[in-house]
Amino acid sequence: MPKKRKRSAKIFYTRWFLLLEIIVLIPVLILLITNQVIRLSAEDHLYDSIDIIPYNRVALVLGTSHRIRNGGPNLYFHHRMQAAADLYHHQKVSYLLLSGDNSTPYYNEPEQMRQALLALGVPDNVMYKDNAGLRTLDSVIRAQKIFGQDSITIVSQRFHNQRAIYIARHNGIYATAYNAADVSRHRNDRTRLREWFAKANVFWDMLISKQPGELDESVEIGQ
């Protein structure tokens, strides 16, 4: 092969490798930056100790399925319910807003949450269900626009609370969060991976001013 052709081929492949590196690098940088921004912004509003978390009238309990795919118990769910019950029993909140997915008659996260909390000694009359909490954004914004709450305590695991806090404060809600017990790392790698992308997606939702799919009639808590 002539030297000129070899040089041209080398330049061609060098440029394609550089382009490929850029294509791969930019999404990775976006993931790293967005995740770090949310984590740092939320850190001062997260609590692990029930003794020092400030009182809030309403806790927003974020839903998930009570069972995993193989039919076993979902520890994320049960740890969140325990954390919510602890907040109520320690008089750190007066009401619980249970927000989750009830998009079909056969799947009802808020009702599963209610049943679990009843078993933990939480009175039925302090629990309110939001059946349209299909996403974290929906749950947080509906807590304000439908249930009239401008100050809430969010209940979930730390990695999830970080995102919920960021969404809440971006929408003018004074939010703190109580971190439910986590799940051992070898059992939650897939969940943690999804969370990286979910945190990045927060900024896309902000860019397009994403709103909940349902904004129905208002509900007064404690009336």
Descriptors:
223 residues, alpha/beta, six-stranded parallel sheet, 6 helices, 6 strands
CATH class: Alpha Beta
- Write down the domain tally: 1
Radius of gyration: 22 Å
Order of helices and strands: HEEHEHEHEHEH
Summed up:
Helices cover 48% and strands 13% of the residues. The protein has 223 residues and is of the alpha/beta class.
Structure description:
With 223 residues, this protein is of the alpha/beta class. The chain has a single domain, classed as Rossmann fold (3-Layer(aba) Sandwich), CATH 3.40.50. Helices cover 48% and strands 13% of the residues. It has 6 helices and 6 strands; from the N terminus they run αββαβαβαβαβα. It has a 6-stranded parallel beta sheet with strand order 1-6-5-2-3-4. α1 crosses α5 (158-170). The protein is globular and about 75 Å long. The N and C termini lie far apart (85 Å). The model has no long low-confidence stretch (mean pLDDT 89).
